[in-house]
Amino acid sequence: MGEKKKRISALDMPDVPAGQLPEHMEIQRTRVVAKSDAPIHTEGVQYCGAYMSMGVDNSLQLDTFCSDFRVEVKRLTEDEIEFDMVGIDASLANAFRRILIAEVPTMAVEKVLVVNNTSVIADEILAHRLGLIPLKADPRLFEYLSENDAPNERNTIVYRLDVSCGKDSPRITVKSDQLKWLPNGSGLLRGTQSYTSFSCSQESLPEFSENPPKLMHDDITIAKIGPGQAIELEAHAVKGIGKVHAKWSPVATAWYRMLPEIVLLREIEGESAEELKKKCPVNVFDVEDIGNGRKKAVVKNPRACTLCRECIYGASEDHVEVRRVKDHFIFTVESSGALPPEVLFTEAVKILEEKCDRVISELS
Ligand code: SF4
Fold this sequence. Notes:
Layout: H1 23-30, E1 31-34, E2 39-40, H2 62-68, E3 70-76, E4 80-86, H3 90-102, E5 106-117, H4 123-131, E6 135-136, E7 157-164, E8 172-175, E9 180-181, E10 189-190, E11 193-194, H5 206-210, E12 214-215, E13 221-225, E14 230-240, E15 251-264, H6 270-279, E16 285-291, E17 294-299, E18 320-335, H7 341-363
The structure holds iron/sulfur cluster.
The site of iron/sulfur cluster has 13 residues, from loops.
């Protein structure tokens, strides 16, 4: 380690086949390179004529995009999905992330009618806590409740909470499973009228009889009440989006990172190989026996790289290059429970599609 980089004169460089970029320019176009101080080549090269003088067309072709674009699911659990999205620009990957966080709708408690609250928690704090409880209700089965609409069986879910602690009882913890679904709507009256206008029971609707609205978790603490205290209220959940309030966001998190690519710029053998292996905290490197008692470093698990840059500090920068592939995104979506994570992503795709249709129709 520590030898100087060999410089090659431009006149001695090998000819590049027509229609291709020289290697260093191809890296600049397609990779972000992490240097020990800061990353370089971070911007995307969008201009179609950027390499025209070299006979390379940099325009985005729809048929090439369609043939190259792919999505591969790497991990899928009940509430989390990790998939690779390949052949797409960072702006589109980010559009999906933002739509997932802020524009895919869910159901959440929006209105709380407090009949009685003698607990130490103020009404507004209680209402806020109820709003943040994730509901397992498919938002696609509901309509938005606009200002002029009456709450009905198609746009509102009503829950009732009625708990009290006896005068001589120990303090009790009120949990989310004590919220009871009222399929016939509100049981409270404003004058002679109910707060909701349900024309039928939600239980009688085929979409809910199979799939009744539930709470995602039964053990979320809502409040603690002491002897003689009571809470009686109704919580009305409606459809909304995370852009209005984070309680409607369907994801606990949605994030992506570019695919790591670790390149050994030269053979690293012996002690140096062992040193390199030890430097990486997530075991990206391994040491292979190459016979005659010799060992060399190899890249074993580049996907695990966290970009900590430990392996390129100091003299190692000439031996190892840490890159990111600009059009390959590792996406992770963690659902808060209303919809399975794979459905959330397809919903985000539909929303982006609708936006594109709107732009096209406006333009035409
Ligand atoms: S940047 Fe960090 S995580 Fe990535 S290979 Fe180097 S040492 Fe390992």
